[in-house]
Amino acid sequence: MLVKLQRRLRPIDDGGSALVSVLVIMLVLSIGGMALAAIVTNTTMTLVDSRSTAQSRAAADAGLADAVGAMRRSGVTCGGVQRNVRVDSTRASSPTYSYRVVCAGGLATVTATGEASDGMTTTQAVYRYTETPSSDGDMVFFGTNDVTFTYEVRTSAPGRLLKIVVPQAKFVCQALIPGNITVGGDIDANGGCTIKGDVTSGGVVDMCCGSDTIEGNLSTSGTGSGTVRGTVVKNLHANGALTFGWEGKQVGGSVTTSGNVKLGNVRIGGTLTMPSSKTYDAQSGVITGGVVRPATVAGPTPPTLPPWFEYKYAAADFPGYNVVTLVNSGSGPGTCNYFNSSPGTGWTTSLPAYTTPTVIDARACTILSSQNGSLPNIALKTNFVFLAKQFDLGSMQMRGATGLATKPKVWFITDDLTPTDHQPTCPRGYGPTLINGTVTATSITAMAYTPCEIKVAGGASGISDKWNGAFYGGGWSYGGGLEFTADPIGVPGMSSSSSGSSTGTLGSLVSQRDIAPQRIP
């Protein structure tokens, strides 16, 4: 009986064991299935993220290539921006890129961001670039006082003609000027004047002497009477009466005027065109091409005169620059007296030690002066921005240190505190930028920007003034010798149209790296 009972119970035990085994297997399979599903889901998400990242990186690279290609073809447009450009213009869901170009200190920084689905990649490349001359000019002087260049003012622009712009005043020439001149007032040549380029004037011409020569074209849109006793090598176009001298000079091209004419004994190589209603006195003059007398003669187009370019320093204009703010107390490092007072350690010791671009903010000082008896002769290793209410740069020499890949740039900036009137504003407490025994060597490029005067006194400490770079001032005051060499440089945002961008030629790649993802503003 016991045997029978065991036989009956054994299948029940075996069946229970099998059930448990099945349940265990099902549990293991379920856990495995869930794990596999999680792995598949995570892998899918990773693949999607990886795909988005790869696509956004490719889009960022496309944006960078687009920006650099445009700059190679058409030149650098500093401040240029493109936003949300589709990589594939035919697909609405295409990855997009945006980029911005920022320039400072001879470097153009291109920041490009690519976006695809939820992925975003930002890459940044830094290139060297050479700024092109602003069509506002190499030497620009506002204000209503005459701007006079005597024989002591020696100017040059290697490989091209200098550009001088005087929007409001008269320009008086008594020197050799290898440039083009645009002037809002009269153009006077007072003996010993030779202008190698064109002259465009909103006033009239007064060439006093046979020694005066304009080798380009001469255009005067003022309605008053002009006098020409020297030589004009090309054409002359006037909007008023013209009186030529008896010095036996010539106009190489044609003469066009809407006023009366007295020829003296000038020789005109082309034609003379003047209204039939105006008085023509041939005197002893010779006109090779004959006289043309229509009923009316249009005057020349007045010169295009730029408005004053307003600038007030902003740290964002010089990205990556270290800022040293001077205080107007004490005499140690970080103070005005560290520069202004003997022994002038700020100039002689501190500046040569800097290796990264730096702003010296001296706007809390009454003045920033190098005229302290130290006769600083400074070898710069990097770019500098100097900010002050006024500058006395007397008895100071600056040059680039040896072995640099690019020459340093230096800005001497006095803020214009009234940014909306398009006029130079030099308020109480502000003053000129004084050049007096000052040298900025050709191994650096220097810019003087001030709504006050740029004042040349000349020759302090027996040092002849030399400036390599550009001037942009609210006026010009001259009282000593100056050798000026044009070298393109401007304050940020300055351009041919003063429209908020500047231009230049792209150079070699300095660096390229990925940065934290960011949208281009």
Short characterization:
It contains 3 helices and 44 strands. The strands form 5 sheets. It has a 23-stranded parallel sheet that branches.
Overview of this protein structure:
- The strands form 5 sheets. The chain has a 23-stranded parallel beta sheet that branches. An 8-stranded parallel beta sheet has the order 7-10-13-16-19-22-25-28, with no helix packed on it.
- It is flat and about 140 Å long.
- The chain is of the alpha/beta class and about 525 residues long.
- The model is unreliable at about 45-50 and about 495-500 (pLDDT under 50).
- It starts with a helix and ends in a 6-residue tail after the last strand.
Overall form: flat
Number of strands: 44
Total helical segments: 3
Alpha-carbon distance between the two ends: 95 Å
Averaged pLDDT:
89
Features:
37% strand; 521 residues; 17% helix
Write the layout of secondary structure elements.
Blueprint: H1 2-74, E1 76-78, E2 81-86, E3 96-104, E4 107-116, E5 119-131, E6 139-141, E7 147-149, E8 153-156, E9 162-166, E10 171-173, E11 176-177, E12 179-183, E13 187-189, E14 194-195, E15 199-201, E16 205-207, E17 213-214, E18 218-220, E19 226-228, E20 231-232, E21 236-238, E22 242-244, E23 250-251, E24 255-257, E25 261-262, E26 267-268, E27 272-273, E28 280-281, E29 286-287, E30 291-292, E31 322-325, H2 337-340, H3 345-353, E32 358-361, E33 368-369, E34 377-380, E35 384-387, E36 391-392, E37 396-400, E38 409-413, E39 433-435, E40 438-440, E41 445-456, E42 465-478, E43 482-486, E44 502-515
Parallel strand pairs: 6-9, 6-42, 7-10, 8-43, 9-12, 10-13, 11-14, 12-15, 13-16, 14-17, 15-18, 16-19, 17-20, 18-21, 19-22, 21-24, 22-25, 23-26, 24-27, 25-28, 26-29, 27-30, 31-32, 32-35, 33-36, 34-37, 35-38, 36-39, 37-40, 38-41, 39-41, 40-42, 41-42, 42-43
Antiparallel strand pairs: 1-44, 2-3, 3-4, 4-5, 5-44
